[in-house]
């Protein structure tokens, strides 16, 4: 696992297999990160262990080489830690800031106590309906492609687990949070459900993945840093 930002990577044999921690920048897709890493290391077999939305930042685990890409599922199954901001009073089709608000509602009646009670309601095993704006496939088609055409299809709820849910700042309409959750959890859905439970609407304004299992974004390289280390 390459985590040291000061090591010389120019002689690393990536084809034999490496696992890389990357701090994904905002505005880039997870696939774009894989594409750039593939170009830098000149290895065809490169994959990531869990998608981050383009608007999100944070930890991506990148597996390089045939043997390591076979192990992607190991990292995909690990618990995740996220931090971010929910903005109350608005709802968007994508449940984040990638689409325009479709509903504006009053949030002035919301109290800290209401937020605390709502937070507690998410702890433990919960059911989530995957969002239409997601990479899941139905009948061979990505849901987000259908959503962009205004088509909505039925999605079955899934069981996920919220191990910890901390509110770190309340400055309405914004609420900052930190969540530890099981694989497959959609934080956008939590933001949307959070606003619905408060009867004022809400969407995910920002998101950062801090950790996957024992692997922390503090040990990750940006792609630009990784490229510079390989050019050293």
- The CATH class of the largest domain: Alpha Beta
Question: What value does the Rg take, in angstroms?
Answer: 19 Å
Q: State the CATH superfamily name of the largest domain.
A: Pseudouridine synthase
Q: Give the topology string: H per helix, E per strand.
A: EHEEHHEEEHEEEHEEHEEH
Question: How far apart are the first and last residues' alpha carbons, in Å?
Answer: 19 Å
Name the overall outline: globular
Question: If you average the pLDDT, what whole number results?
Answer: 92
Helix content: 10-25%
- Going by helix content, strand content and strand pairing, the class is alpha+beta
- Report strand %: 25-35%
* Main beta sheet strand tally, sense and closure: 9 strands, mixed
Instruction: Identify the CATH architecture of the largest domain.
Output: 2-Layer Sandwich
Q: What is the number of E strands?
A: 13
Protein described:
This protein has 232 residues and is an alpha+beta fold. The chain has two domains: 14-77 and 214-231, Pseudouridine synthase, CATH 3.30.2350.10; 80-212, Pseudouridine synthase (2-Layer Sandwich). It is built from seven helices and 13 strands. The strands form three sheets. Strands 1, 2, 3, 4, 7, 10, 11, 12 and 13 form a nine-stranded mixed β-sheet that branches. Strands 5-6 form a two-stranded antiparallel ribbon. A two-stranded antiparallel ribbon has the order 8-9. It is globular and about 60 Å long. The mean pLDDT is 92.
């Amino acid at each position: 696992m390459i985590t040291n930002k000061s090591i010389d990577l120019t002689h690393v044999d990536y084809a034999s297999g490496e696992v890389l921690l990357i701090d994904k920048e905002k505005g880039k897709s997870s696939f774009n990160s894989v594409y750039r890493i593939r170009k830098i290391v000149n290895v065809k077999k490169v994959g990531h262990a869990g998608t981050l939305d383009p608007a999100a930042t944070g930890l991506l685990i990148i597996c390089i080489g045939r043997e390591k890409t076979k192990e992607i599922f190991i990292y995909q199954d690990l618990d995740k830690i996220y931090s971010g901001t929910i903005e109350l009073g608005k709802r968007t089709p994508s449940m984040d800031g990638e689409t325009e608000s479709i509903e504006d509602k009053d949030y002035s009646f919301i109290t800290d106590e209401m937020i605390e009670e709502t937070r507690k309601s998410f702890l433990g095993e919960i059911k989530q309906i995957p969002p239409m704006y997601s990479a899941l496939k139905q009948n061979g088609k990505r849901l987000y492609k259908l959503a962009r055409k205004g088509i909505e299809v039925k999605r079955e709820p899934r069981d996920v687990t919220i191990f910890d849910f901390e509110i770190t700042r309340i400055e309405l309409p914004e609420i900052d949070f930190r969540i530890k959750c099981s694989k497959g959890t959609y934080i956008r859905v939590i933001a949307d459900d959070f606003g619905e439970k408060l009867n004022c609407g809400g969407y995910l304004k920002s998101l950062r993945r801090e950790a996957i299992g024992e692997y922390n974004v503090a040990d990750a390289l940006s792609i630009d840093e990784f490229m510079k280390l390989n050019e050293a």
